[in-house]
Amino acid sequence: MTHSFDKDYWDKIWQGDRATAMAAGDPNPHLVQEVNDLTPGTAIDAGCGAGTEAIWLAARGWRVTGADIAADALACARERATAYGVDGHVQFVEADLSTWTPHEQYDLVTTHYSHPSIPQLEFYDRLATWVAPGGTLFIVGHLHPANHGAADGEGHLDGHGHRNTEQPPAEASATAAAITARLDPAVWDIQSANESHRTMSAPDGRETTIHDVVVRATRRN
Ligand SMILES: C[S@@+](CC[C@H](N)C(=O)[O-])C[C@H]1O[C@@H](n2cnc3c(N)ncnc32)[C@H](O)[C@@H]1O
């Protein structure tokens, strides 16, 4: 890896054509499948990018905060929320989630492929502290290469079909076992912890397999 996933890196990503490509995608299928049985309340999408999942949640009655380090991503997200008519139900906050702490806890804390410059599992530790008692932690991340074996340089699609030229590096990924091992069983009820693979077509027409790790847990207290 020749860069760190710091603000400069993400600002450059979002100043390119990526915002447009990400905005064209559907909400994350894992979120769509898993969240349907939850009663809407407050939610935060950590590393919300162009806001696709935050907007989807807001349209389903959640009061949503979308947080991201990249101002250009958030500008796109705000425009889209207005266009979808949900801007009264979602606010977008520019924040470095490796240090920022919200003033409240949420009924749903979710993240999709967000990988900041701090270790991935420490990032998930931080998100876990933001979940209110009885609330849900829902993590969708890049699966660690040791558990899917895709070669570096094969390329991957992000969650909205935008092609990246390199596999996410190991430090930006995780396994289900590594994530659940950090969730104290006295505090967390783990509903599901899965490693899965799906094929997605990029705008360039090529198909790529996306390797996901998906963990859902409820905070008991
Ligand atoms: C791969 S993109 C995923 C975006 C979106 N969740 C999606 O699924 O399309 C990762 C996102 O995390 C954001 N991000 C990375 N590091 C961050 C940090 N330290 N604080 C807040 N957001 C961060 C990036 O700006 C980017 O929007």
Automatic annotation (TrEMBL):
Entry keyword set:
Methyltransferase, Transferase
Extract one GO BP annotation from the record. Answer: methylation
Region ranges (Disordered): 149-176
Stored Gene3D superfamilies: Vaccinia Virus protein VP39 (3.40.50.150)
The answer to whether the entry has keyword Transferase is yes
Q: Which Pfam families match?
A: Methyltransf_25
Bias category Basic and acidic residues: which stretches? 151-165
- MF annotations from Gene Ontology: methyltransferase activity
Q: What is its EC number?
A: 2.1.1.-
EC class of this enzyme? transferase
InterPro entries on file: Methyltransf_25, SAM-dependent_MTases_sf
Q: Which residues form the Methyltransferase domain?
A: 44-135
Name the PANTHER family on file.
Answer: TRANS-ACONITATE 2-METHYLTRANSFERASE-RELATED (PTHR43861)
Give the protein name, as stated in the record.
Answer: Class I SAM-dependent methyltransferase
Q: Which organism is it from?
A: Rhodococcoides yunnanense
